[in-house]
């Protein structure tokens, strides 16, 4: 059984149902910020690497 988290755009509530329990409006499946997260980690990796090289006097 797959449980997908839906989000109500009206009250910013997360629910497992396709209908918001508060305002009864249709909920949507929020898209996970997959790419932005990858970009963030890649940026951090570069930053850490640069820092390591600087500390070793190699940069
Ligand atoms: Zn709602």
Primary descriptors:
59 residues; alpha+beta; Rubrerythrin, domain 2; two-stranded antiparallel ribbon; 1 helix; 37% helix; rod-shaped; binds zinc ion
Write the layout of secondary structure elements.
Layout: E1 6-8, E2 13-15, H1 34-55
Antiparallel strand pairs: 1-2
The structure holds zinc ion (ZN).
Describe the protein.
This protein is of the alpha+beta class and 59 residues long. The chain has a single domain (6-55), classed as Rubrerythrin, domain 2. Helix content is 37%, strand content 10%. It has one helix and two strands. The protein has one helix at residues 34-55; strands spanning 6-8, 13-15. The chain has a two-stranded antiparallel ribbon. Strand 1 and strand 2 form a beta hairpin. It starts with 5 loop residues before the first strand and ends with a helix. The structure holds zinc ion (ZN).
């Amino acid at each position: 059984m797959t449980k997908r988290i839906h989000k109500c755009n009206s009250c910013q509530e997360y629910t497992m149902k396709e209908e918001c329990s508060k305002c009864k409006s249709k909920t949507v499946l929020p898209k996970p910020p997959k790419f932005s997260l990858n970009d963030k980690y890649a940026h951090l990796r570069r930053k850490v690497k640069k820092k390591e090289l600087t500390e070793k006097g190699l940069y």
